[in-house]
Each structure stands twice: as structure tokens, then as C-alpha cells.
UniProtKB/TrEMBL annotation:
InterPro entries noted in UniProt: Bac_transglu_N, Papain-like_cys_pep_sf, Transglutaminase-like
Record-given protein name: Transglutaminase
Coiled coil: none
Gene3D superfamilies: 3.10.620.30
Alphabetized SMART domains for the sequence: TGc
TM helices/strands, residue ranges: none
Superkingdom: Bacteria
Amino acid sequence: MRLKVAHTTRYEFSQPVSHGLQRLRLTPKSTAGQQVLDWRMQYDGAVEEVSYEDHNHNRVTLVSVVPGVSEVVVHCEGLVATADNHGITGHHSGHMPMWSFLAQSPLTRPGPRMRAILSQLDVSKDETLAALHRLSALVLANVAYAPGETGVHTSGEEAAALGLGVCQDHAHIFIGAARALGVPARYVSGYLMMDDRIEQEASHAWAEAHVDGLGWVGFDVSNGISPDERYVRVATGRDYAEAAPVTGMSWGAHETRLAVQLAVEQQHANQ
């Protein structure tokens, strides 16, 4: 499948910015199950300083905000060829050792509610892969998908206690629970082509766990499936903080308003 992606992120500042830096993880790489055919990034109100590969093997672009602007716009557009590998991306790459994906972070660390979800899983009955699929289903059964109830700083435990969350929360709960079972797990940010619409309000997120004999395997808890040809992987990390599409800092603005425009659609041969 050939997926066309157009993603615009717009930051509006309450006052002109004197200085600012933004770290962009918005460039997908060719990996198992996807080949990047074309990808372009454009900036308004910002200047690209450097592009590099981080410790998680993500392509990162560092941009500086033009002093005095009240708005920064980052536009990404490209074409990615994808295939259905049943969520399997295979061998580990990057500079992070596998044991680092067993260590909990503040966003993934289990508390009483996450441990209660995990207690519903009898790992003695299943091999690892089957147990992880059952864990994914348990997370969704206990934490209903509900936009607007949590934020980017909400931990997996907080979302589990609330019983509500979005894809980011589902991923954090799954990752924390998998690590508690001794299975390395990580966070994935990317894109998903929806079946019912092209325009979307946000990018997507899911989890990957490392299974002996298979390597990294994806679990989209929110949709109850492993990623297929409708998915584009962009960045990975130990949690959202390491794989967030945009992180940064600015001086001079008291308030910032964020707006995102995203379109993901299949490109047919005659287009």
C-alpha cells in the first residue's frame, strides 16, 4: 500500500518569542514493513539547524525559532510504501541496550490499578506472544478509549485509575505491564490511515514488545490489533517523552496554542 501523509503543526504564541528551539521527530525511516519513497519538511517562523540520529535510531531535526515571531508552522508531506508484516518489525536497532526497555519510567511505572489489570493475566497458560495479545485486550477492557480525558503528561497509572484514556495512555499501560512481566517494551509514534476518514486531529501511538524469535512486535491497544499496512512508524522510545513528534522550549511567550492538521490517505497507481 502507498500512503500519502500531510501533517501540519502550528504553534501560536501569546507574545513574540525571543528565543526558541524545537526537536522534531517527524521523519519516518525505511524499516521492516515500510519504505519511505518521498518526505519533505517545510518551516515558517523557524530555521533548521541540524539533523541527526538519536539513541533510539530516530531521525531528529533541530530547528530554532526566528526571534520575534508569534507563530511557527512545521509542515511535513511524503509518501510511504507499506506492507502487512503482522506487526513484526524484527531485530533491534539503535544504540539503546535491550535491558533499557525493561526499566520503568514515570509514565509507565505500575501502581495499584495497573497491577490490578496485570493480575487478570495468567501468564502460565500462554507463551509470550499469546500472553501479550491477551494483555492488550485486558488494557482496552479496563481503560475505555475517551479523547479529552487525559493529557501528554498523564501517566499510565493515572489513566488506568481513571479508567479512560487515548492511544498514548493505552501504550504506556501496556508497556509498563509488559516490563513488569520481564518483557522489553517501547513506545511508537506514527500515523494510521483511518477507514472512515482522511482528515485527523492527531497522530497515532502504539506499543512494541520484544519477543524471542520474532524481535519487536507491535500492539495497537486502542484498536485491538497489531499494526498492518495502514500504519507508518515514525519514532520509538522508552515512553512518549522519547518519541514525541515535537518537543522544545521557548522564551518570551507566556502562553502557546497548538493546532494540528493531519491527512493520511492511500495513493492509488493512477494518482
